[in-house]
Amino acid sequence: MGFSEANYVEEWSWGLAKKDEIEIMLAKPNEHTPYENPFFTGSLYINTNDVDGWWNKLKDTEYIYYPIENCEYGMREFAIEDCNGYILQFGQDLLPE
Predict the structure, then answer these.
(1) What is the pTM assigned to this prediction?
(2) Looking at the domain 42-97, which fold is it?
(3) pLDDT digits (tens, 9 = 90+) for 21-66
(4) Nearest-CA neighbor of 69 among 91, 46, 36?
(5) 49/29 Cα distance (integer angstroms)
(6) Fewest Cβ atoms closer than 10 Å to its Cβ: which of 8, 29, 66, 72?
(7) Which sequence spans correspond to the domains of the chain?
């Protein structure tokens, strides 16, 4: 997706990925949370103003979870599955603001 490592502190198990004006912080749970393996339930939903552009960049990969579609709840969206099995959904509002 074009992100690059912006900061990484191995001893804290903490990192930052950046692309344009977007920054995503990634970290293992803190010391108060038992941790054996990565875990997550649900999906990450990414709102964008160019869902078709993202679709064109990613549509030919093996990661497609579901293809782009206009949904009855007013979003145009698609989803990919990342290398850990997490679902990343990309959506754009179809309704005028």
Answers:
(1) 0.67
(2) 2,3-Dihydroxybiphenyl 1,2-Dioxygenase; domain 1 (3.10.180)
(3) 787 877 777 677 777 776 676 778 888 899 999 999 999 999 999 9
(4) 91
(5) 31
(6) 72
(7) 1-29, 42-97
